[in-house]
Amino acid sequence: MKLQHLLLTIIGLTLFNCKHDTWQLKQIKGEQIIITDSLKSDPDIEAFIKPYREHVNNDLDSVLSYAVDTYSKSDGEFNTAIGNLFADVIYEQSNPVFFQRTGKNIDMVLLNHGGIRAIISKGPVSARTAFEIMPFENSIVVVGIKGSQINLMTEYLSKAKRAHPIAKLNLVLDADYSVKEATISGNPIDVNKTYYVATNDYLYNGGDHMTFFKPEESIEILDYKIRNAFIDYFKKTDTISPVIDNRFIKVKN
Fold this sequence. Notes:
By secondary structure, the protein is of the alpha/beta class. Helix content is about 40%, strand content about 20%. It has seven helices and twelve strands. The strands form three sheets. Strands 5-2-9-4-10 form a five-stranded mixed sheet.
């Protein structure tokens, strides 16, 4: 009797599997579920994540530095205080890393105006500030390019007419927005020299139509996020007080 039950069970499973193998997906239906404040939270889930949320918020809101004023990327035409801070921070934090790996120094920095995503408000500066001004996962790369490509870069900047953050490069435009003078660390650009430019991976890959980074002589990926560079800078800098200067200007005559 037990053997009969066993045989029937095996036959049944075999028939089920045969039928199962012939099943075909006929239709997929979906619906949009709107997430609003009307959705009730689960108390058990809230209780579970509460200590983790508090820990993250405490880390993000710990005061690292202090800003003496409020800084916005709309505060200047060709260079802004916050943009200058962006470029200077990248140089200061990246150059020691690059030098340790290569024995060379970074010659200049170029970032993009659109990459600055928030203001820095007057008062306490925290890790959250870094996440607000740089919410993207962009990392720092140092690209070796010829001086002839630097000239293409300065032409790009003159036509863009935007306060793209730069450091170590000084650019003067004439009244017609043509390049009147361009120097790196006070020296004229040598078209045959290789310059090491710190930028982000987005721009290196042609973002904002910055195609002058390729072909490159060399590329050093620092594995250093721009956001983390800011957090490290804030930790060691008591007071943040960037200014608009003459690194990128236009003359009237």
